[in-house]
Design a protein that fits this description.
alpha+beta, six-stranded mixed beta sheet, 7 helices
């Protein structure tokens, strides 16, 4: 049966890393690529380069210098749309339907450094964002609808999604309050963690390594911040999932790497 392969990648500036992205598309050949932190206005998005690479179907929600999300695809996109959250127009969501599957691409706020919403407005924004998206899906979508939710969710929820559970419990991205919010979002529509569907929870798994490490590979102090979820109708269609760690080691690398999921859905 034909398959649909969807990749997600926080590229940390699509214009700066367009050659890297195009090489990834040649090597991995996903049907759909969802990008976060494209850091460019819509008019400057390198759409022509993606079209030439065989990805002419595009949905972009960008802004100058910060944030921004995009979906590029080899197969037609329908019903492209985006939503704003927390009263901000900061380009953190875009969605479209591909091969009968509605894909939601998110860039969740990072949350700053202090895990206290009273002391840190960035952390308060993150928690509000998580509450709003959870409520929106519960109100506007059903678990029976074939959907994927992908992106840089900026939370590593499980013990082995971080290099040290004990040391990171009070570090933003792994705090109990964030994990609880993420769990509530996930449970709202019984979303299935597509990567952990294949990789047991007791195995270390990362998609992000800080630029601060002199030797990121040797130190291996990673976190799994990038996720792919599917609704229950797609669970039995999951065929494979992969986090492509080698892309962290290329020249001018993003601090995130691509995550790919393949489903038994005709593309």
């Amino acid at each position: 049966m034909p398959s649909l392969t969807v990749a997600t990648w926080n590229i940390n500036s699509v214009r700066l890393r367009i050659d890297t992205v195009l090489q990834f598309l040649r090597d991995a050949a996903p049907d759909v690529l969802c990008l976060q932190e494209i850091k460019t206005e819509d008019a400057l998005f390198p759409g022509a380069a993606f079209t030439q690479a065989g990805y002419p179907h595009q949905a972009v929600r960008g802004m100058k210098a910060y944030n921004g999300v995009a979906i590029v695809s080899r197969i037609p996109l329908t019903r492209p749309h985006s939503l704003d959250w927390c009263g901000k127009t900061d380009s953190r969501h875009i969605a479209a339907e591909v091969a009968g599957v509605e894909i939601h691409n998110f860039y969740v706020p990072a949350g700053g450094d202090i895990p206290d919403p009273d002391q840190n407005e960035k952390f308060a924004h993150k928690l509000q964002f998580l509450d709003e998206v959870t409520a929106w899906f519960s109100t506007n979508r059903r678990a029976e609808t074939p959907m994927m939710l992908v992106g840089d969710l900026n939370i590593a929820p499980l013990e082995h999604d971080v290099w040290s559970h004990k040391k990171l419990l009070d570090v933003v991205s792994h705090t109990p309050i964030e994990v609880e919010r993420m769990d509530r979002w996930q449970q709202g529509l019984a979303w299935v963690d597509a990567v952990r569907h294949f990789v047991p929870d007791d195995q270390k798994l990362y998609s992000w390594w800080s630029y601060r490490a002199k030797d990121w590979d040797l130190a291996d102090k990673g976190r799994r911040l990038d996720h792919v979820w599917v609704t229950p109708p797609l669970k039995e269609k999951l065929e494979a999932a992969e986090i492509q760690r080698p892309w962290r080691g290329v020249e001018k690398a993003s601090d995130h790497v691509p995550v790919l999921v393949r489903l038994a859905v005709p593309a």
